[in-house]
Design goal:
Layout lengths: L3 E6 L3 H4 L5 H8 L5 E6 L5 H11 L4 E6 L1 H11 L7 E6 L5 H5 L6 H10 L1 E10 L3 E3 L2 E4 L1 H7 L3 H7 L2 H11 L5 E7 L3 E6 L1 E5 L21 E6 L4 H12 L9 E6 L1 E5 L7 E4 L2 E5 L2 E14 L3
Parallel strand pairs: 1-2, 1-3, 3-4
Antiparallel strand pairs: 5-6, 5-16, 7-10, 7-14, 8-9, 8-13, 10-11, 11-12, 13-16, 14-15
Helix pairs in contact: 2-6, 3-4, 7-9
Length: about 300
């Protein structure tokens, strides 16, 4: 029986070196997939459209070569389907959180080899307001907002330091805002400076920060920071290093399968989803448990 694969390549990823790997991908997977289609993204949304077409045409495998944004777009094309093609990731972005979480090699050459030798791992997908999917982190607050405003040229020059630089500017001006979480188990209201809602155990390329997260456990892990300034960050550093962020007095932690998030009338708060701008509050979030299969290096 013939098997088909679609390879989606973002040519601007990896300091514009992504196109160099097309032939290696073909050579690596051609014994398993007799029909191989390669498509290059040109505009925002292309990866979503390509992945959706692959699912509609019953492709067996989709490979996403690019950064977290390209992976997010690809997932948004696959996730609406009940039995989507399995997904392979060749990480070529600045952070590559999902790849790190699944122990997918950051070196593209090694990640390509994994496409045929890796383990199939089912991951949870977050669904936002019934129309946007995510795999990594949803953030709310000025520090989270700063992430999707980082200039792509600066990311190319200084890598993940560009994110730290942007966040650093925001935490100097700590401005808490009112928020309400309505979960299956309980409701919580309070003032926070930033909210991180995680599905994976990697944040900014560092796995110890959200050590509480167990991939694929069917839950959102919500970290609500009451304040985020230099003083509180210094106090939280031991908790971050030891992977005990939820034990910090400055953090409210919740674990839930679904949550409605609102803020006060008249307040405007936007979200960041996997490093890209998301919708403004209110948000309705739910977990699609182990919804997509990814070829990984994780048992």
């Amino acid at each position: 029986m013939k098997k088909s694969a679609l390879v989606i390549i973002n040519p601007s990823s990896g300091k514009e070196q992504a196109t160099e790997y097309e032939e290696q991908i073909r050579e690596t997977i051609q014994d398993t997939y007799s029909e191989i289609t390669v498509k290059y993204t040109e505009d925002e949304g292309d990866a979503t459209r390509f992945a959706k077409e692959a699912a509609e045409n019953n492709y067996d495998f989709v490979v996403s070569l690019g950064g977290d944004g390209t992976v997010n777009e690809t997932v948004n094309g696959l996730a609406p389907f009940n039995n989507p093609p399995k997904l392979g990731i060749i990480p070529m972005g600045t952070v590559n959180d999902l790849a790190r979480s699944l122990n997918i090699p950051i070196k593209p050459v090694d990640a390509i080899k994994l496409l045929v030798s890796g383990t199939e791992t089912k991951i949870d997908i977050g669904l936002t307001n019934d129309n946007i999917y995510f795999t990594n982190i949803l953030g709310i607050g000025s520090a989270a907002k700063a992430i999707h405003q980082v200039d792509s040229e600066e990311k190319s020059k200084i890598g993940s330091l560009a994110y730290l630089k942007a966040i650093g500017k925001e935490i100097i001006d700590d401005q808490p805002f009112p928020i309400k979480f309505e979960m299956e188990e309980n409701t919580w209201e309070g003032d926070v400076s930033v909210v991180l809602i995680s599905l994976i155990d990697s944040l900014g390329g560092i796995k110890t920060i959200v050590n509480e997260v167990e991939n694929g456990d069917g839950n959102f892990h919500i970290f609500a920071f009451k304040h985020l300034n230099l003083t509180e960050l210094a106090k939280m550093t031991p908790s971050i290093v030891m992977g005990k962020l939820k034990e910090s007095e400055n953090v409210q932690y919740f674990k839930t399968r679904q949550v409605k998030i609102t803020t006060s009338a008249g307040e405007t708060q936007e979200s960041d989803i996997d490093g890209e701008q998301g919708p403004d509050l209110p948000l309705d979030l739910k977990v699609l448990h182990q919804h997509i299969t990814i070829v990984s290096n994780k048992a």
